[in-house]
Each structure stands twice: as C-alpha cells, then as structure tokens.
TrEMBL record:
GO terms for biological process: methionine biosynthetic process; tetrahydrofolate interconversion. The keyword Cell wall biogenesis/degradation does not apply. This is Methylenetetrahydrofolate reductase. It comes from the Bacteria. The keyword Hydrolase does not apply. It catalyses: (6S)-5-methyl-5,6,7,8-tetrahydrofolate + NAD(+) = (6R)-5,10-methylene-5,6,7,8-tetrahydrofolate + NADH + H(+). It comes from Desulfatirhabdium butyrativorans.
Length: 314
C-alpha cells in the first residue's frame, strides 16, 4: 500500500475499513496526567484521536504537547492546528516540530473566534487579537507543500519533507449551504486527504449534501468522516442549535431528549441511530465522535454499533 504519511488512520481508510476517530480535549492546565487518563480510557476504541487546538478560544495545553503524550501512550493523535493564533512562520515551525516528534496526522482549521472564549464561568480572552494570516484552505495547501515538495510556503526548501496525512473540516449545513460543498472541493484540491464534518443531527439534510459531494467527484478524491456529538440533555441540543454554526438539530430530537426519563441514555440511543444513519449514506467512510466530558460512553457506543474491535494488523 502506497502511503503519504504511514499513519494508522491513513492505512485504515485506504484499506476500505469504516474509520473511527474520537476527540480528546487537552486540559486547562499543565497536568499531563489528565491527558494520560483519557488516553487509557480510550485505548483501542479509535484509529485516530483528535487533539483540539484551544477549542472555543479557551487556553488549554498545546495540541502538540498533548499529541505527544497520546503518542507516548500508544495512541495515534490527529493534531489540530487553527489559523486564529499563529502566522505562517509559527505554524510551519510547529509543524516541523510535530513531525520531529512523530505526529503524522494534522487537521487544518480556521479556529473559533476569540469571542467564543467568554461563556459560562469563563472570562476567556474576547479582546485577544486574532491572526488569520492564512485561512484553512491555505493552511492545507501549505502542509501539502511541506510534505509533497519539501518546500516552505514562501518557496524556500526544507531539508526533508514532513510526512503528514492532512485533514480538513466541512460544515455542510451552515448557510449558504449550496456554497459549502464548493468550499469543500477547494480544500480537497489544496490537498486534504480526509475530511471531518461538523456534528450531524439532521441526517436527511446531510444526505443531500453528500449527494452533491458524490456528484462533484469529491468522495473519489478524499475520505469523509461524519461528525457525531453525543447529546447529554435537551439543553445541550438547544444550545448547539442556537450557538454553534452549522449545527442543525431537528425539533423532534430536542423534544425526545426533553421527555426522556434518562436523558443520557437517550442521548446514547440517538448517537447509535446517527452512526447507523451515517454508515448508510453513500460516500461516508467513517465517523468522528465527540463525547464531551463523557468519554467513558464511547466504548459502549462503539461496541453497540459493531465498530469494536478496531481492525488489527494495519
């Protein structure tokens, strides 16, 4: 099998297996034990473990450091990198460092606006200056250039290429929805090897978006993983519907969670249905699961949908 980075995630997808990635959020502090605890809880449940890069613009342990901790625990990280906080010089320097540490998967993102950091009890840094020296499409292209041509973004040579399996995000249901598939195509043209979508709750609407991607030939050029967030309450669903761009939650799901005697178990049941629905949509090659501060549920969920154990010998 010809590989670009040799990562497990790349090999699972190229072998035609239905891939699983899960999210591991670094702590708001320097304690490596918090990352290790999550790693040991989730060992063996996924092919790649997304390490977020200061998600919602809240200061956390760096994605590079947390990725290295996962790597030391035997898990394969998917290191996220956002355009919000660094210029292209700093980003390329971090990418060289990540490659040197053995990190082989990178997910290229724009990043949540810094105003998102002020929520609940957190003051955050809403006044921080964003950078956005380049956007997420340019970031994908930059990483591809470092890997495929061993060149920096400015054209200067690297001493050797950086072997990354390159990912990008797709928010298919954010308005204007017809535009989103064309932006996805630009990311694939720039070099995105795999795609993780925003959380999907409306399977019918997502199936329509996937049909567009299939018709444009996008699914023949990249691997699309459907995003699933495990809902824990009706309030959580309402919050995402109102505040998270591109998340469309049918009212029937919110009502169902509102009426549930055990909302968490109902959320697990909804998650199982969503995964089954995504697997049935042509062009979907895997799922990306987020169980925010409820990671202990993921082994149960993946067993129930027949996605454990993960493929061996890859």
């Amino acid at each position: 099998m010809n590989t670009k980075a040799g990562s497990r995630l790349e090999q699972v997808l190229k072998a035609g297996e239905f891939a699983v990635t899960v999210e591991v959020g670094p702590p708001r502090g320097p304690n490596a034990g918090a990352v290790i605890d999550k790693a040991r809880l989730l060992t063996g449940v996924a092919d790649g473990y997304n390490v977020t890069d200061n998600q919602t613009a809240v200061v956390r342990m760096s994605s590079i450091a947390a990725s290295k901790i996962l790597l030391d625990e035997g898990l394969e990280p998917v290191m996220q990198m956002v355009c919000r906080d660094r210029n292209r010089i700093a980003m390329q320097s971090d990418l060289l460092g990540a490659s040197a540490l053995g990190i082989r998967n990178v997910l290229c993102l724009s990043g949540d606006h810094q105003k998102a950091s002020a929520s609940g009890k957190l003051k955050g840094h809403p006044g921080a200056k964003n950078v956005y020296d380049i956007d997420s499409i340019q970031l994908v292209s930059m990483v591809a250039g470092m890997r495929d041509r061993a060149v920096q973004e400015g054209g200067d040579p690297l001493t050797e290429p950086t072997p990354f399996w390159i990912g990008a995000a797709w928010t298919p249901l954010a308005p204007p929805t017809d535009f989103r598939v064309f932006r996805l195509a630009k990311k694939v043209q720039a070099g995105a090897d795999f795609i993780q979508t925003q959380a999907i709750f409306d399977l019918r609407a997502f199936a329509h978006a996937m049909q567009q991607a299939v018709e444009l030939g996008i699914t023949e050029r990249t691997f699309i993983l459907g995003g699933v967030i495990v809902p824990k309450s009706a309030a959580m669903l309402r919050y995402m519907q109102r505040n998270v761009p591109g998340v469309v939650v049918p009212e029937a799901l919110i009502d169902r969670m509102s009426q549930a005697k055990d909302p968490l178990q109902e959320g697990v049941a909804i998650t199982l249905e969503l995964i089954a629905g995504l697997r049935a949509i042509p062009g979907v090659k895997g799922v990306h699961l987020q169980a925010i501060e409820a990671e202990h549920l993921l082994p149960e969920i993946l067993h129930a949908v027949g996605l454990l154990p993960r493929p061996m010998g890859i």
